Amino acid sequence: MKSELLLVLVLSLCVSSKPLSKRRTYNKLLLISFDGFRWDYDQDVNTPNLDELVKEGVKAKYINPPAITMTSPSHFTTITGRWIEDHGVVHNLMFNDKTGLRVPHKATLKRSEWWDNGALPLWITAQNQGLKTASFLYPGGGVNYSGQAVDRFLVEDHGQPDDETEWRQNIDTVMGWFTKEDFDFVTLYYGEPDNVGHTFGPETPERIKIIEQIDRTIGYLREAIHKNGLTDHLNVILSSDHGMTTVKMASEVNEIKLSNYMSLFNLARFDLLDYGGFGMITPREGKGQEVYDSLKNAHPNLTVYKQEEIPEHFHIRKHERIQPIVLLADLGFNINSRVILHINKGDHGFSNEEMDMKMIFRAFGPDFRDNFLAEPFDSVSIYPLMCKLLGVVPEANNGSLSDTKDMLVDNFDAGGSSGRIKVSLSLLLLMIIILTLI
Ligand SMILES: *[C@@H]1O[C@H](CO)[C@@H](O)[C@H](O)[C@H]1NC(C)=O
Ligand SMILES: *[C@@H]1O[C@H](CO)[C@@H](O)[C@H](O)[C@H]1NC(C)=O
Ligand SMILES: *[C@@H]1O[C@H](CO)[C@@H](O)[C@H](O)[C@H]1NC(C)=O
Ligand SMILES: [Zn+2]
Fold first, then answer.
1. CATH 3.30.1360.180 occupies which residues in the chain?
2. What InterPro entries does the record tag this protein with (predicted)?
3. Which one-letter DSSP state was computed for residue 22?
4. Does 71 participate in catalysis according to the annotation?
5. What is the pTM for the complete model shown?
6. Which residues contact 438 (CB under 8 A, 6 or more apart)?
7. Which of 112, 144, 145, 155 for mutating ligand 1's site (highest number of atoms within 8 Å of CB)?
């Protein structure tokens, strides 16, 4: 009788020894983006560390970027879960077609008015729900949203070096944020393999080399996670923003040069051309139809849309920053305006339906299954997954958790990955054993 009473007492003690806070304990999350990491870049390179992650984590064969396959638009879709027409970051440049303003990509990283259009990125939402978040060079992480900044951020301002030592230091810094400062969510950005893909082209020994460097960096990351005691407390999602394809040159094809078909000076008030496979033109007053007619059948590998003709499934049409004429070139055909410069041997900006624009997705950590191959999905669905992992109530978004929820361990919703609950369960067992012995 006495020991039964004691058992009840101990039982209630064990129950109340669960975390007192209303949130159950969620693991931390690191989102890493390697810019321009095409989905198949690991297939012709020796990548022991990425291979290891297939066994010890989740791999999607590939994932789909949003329809403007460019750095800022795509990264902002990942961090907001919104289509481009809903978040408004429609280009790498900040621009104003009325004033002719063009702000280069690096400078946009400090301009709130380019990013802050009403769609709240996850950093801010998570902070508003009590979490600590940080951005290490991730596009959009360095500006204010409704007046609010990310708790800790570093902004890319000197062109990102491909120095492997610096890459490792960046990982050490992020590990310190998690362990010494108890950050919950950090985004980490690397400018490779995009730079190498542009400069040398994707099908080159230089690209192979940079993928080997990235693979070593992932190995370093895994060691660092282990050394910092984060193995059971940190989930990692590794992805990108778009792929890369070889630019087709004159010896092989008839390159696109718009000035062959129309006078840009006479017909256009503003344009965003010479950025890979995607371009926009703002016609002069009353010249819209003339621009359209001049380009519509000009080149077999150029598709021309009036804004209202853009297929809905691209999810770009609705935004006011989309200009009246939108151009999309076939894979590998750059949209040149007045001269063909051949600065880039590789490029992106092409349709997100092209396999060369698809990107990598990997994930590992305590809440992810081992050896799980996920079906391809839209990158917009990374957002609800991240919210679920962090226990954050998501903003309205265009992603779907049904794309990604199977990646999680079976008992995720039961809180099975929470260390503290496991401890109190084993404590309970121990108590019962002791009591039955009394
Ligand atoms: C963000 O807001 C702070 C405080 O008002 C301000 O000092 C800072 O310059 C702003 N940053 C940007 C990028 O606008
Ligand atoms: C370019 O256009 C031609 C004619 O329509 C087509 O046969 C070819 O496949 C196109 N090239 C690409 C890369 O789509
Ligand atoms: C995307 O999400 C926003 C916010 O919920 C919504 O207003 C919009 O209609 C959605 N877009 C599509 C195509 O469903
Ligand atoms: Zn990019």
1. 256-343
2. Alkaline_phosphatase_core_sf, Phosphodiest/P_Trfase
3. S
4. yes
5. 0.90
6. 3, 6
7. 144
Kindly give the distance from the C-alpha atom of residue 397 to the centroid of ligand 3, in angstroms, as a whole number. 6
Give 263-309 pLDDT, tens digit per residue: 999 999 999 999 999 999 999 999 999 999 999 999 999 999 999 99
Which of the following is catalytic: 47, 71, 245, 404?
71
Topology classification of domain 25-246+360-416: Alkaline Phosphatase, subunit A (3.40.720)
Give kind and range of the element (H or E) at residue 75: helix 71-80
SS (H, E, C) 121-156: CHHHHHHHCCCCEEEECCCCCCCCECCECCCEEECC
203 class by beta-carbon count within 10 Å (0-12 exposed, 13-18 middle, 19+ buried) = middle
Token pair listed for 391: 């226990």
Distance 165 CA to ligand 4 centre (A): 22
The domain made up of 256-343 has a fold known as Gyrase A; domain 2 (3.30.1360)
Tokens 């696109």, residue located: 256
Residues with C-beta less than 6 Å from any ligand 3 atom? 82-83, 86, 315, 396, 398
Residue with CA closest to ligand 3 atom 3: 397
According to DSSP, residue 21 is labeled S
| Spatial CA neighbour of 191 closest among 217, 216, 165, 156 | 156
- Ligand nearest 319 Cα, by number? 3
- Nearest ligand to the CA of 243 is 4
pLDDT in tens, 376-399: 999 999 999 999 999 999 999 999
Where do you find CATH 3.40.720.10 in the chain?
A: 25-246+360-416
Cβ–ligand 1 distance for 149 under 6 Å, the answer yes
CA distances from residue 237 to 29, 32, 351 in whole angstroms, order as listed: 8, 6, 24
Q: What are phi and psi of 87, to 5 degrees?
A: -105, -15
Ligand 2 atom 4 nearest Cα: 300
> What letter would DSSP give residue 38?
B
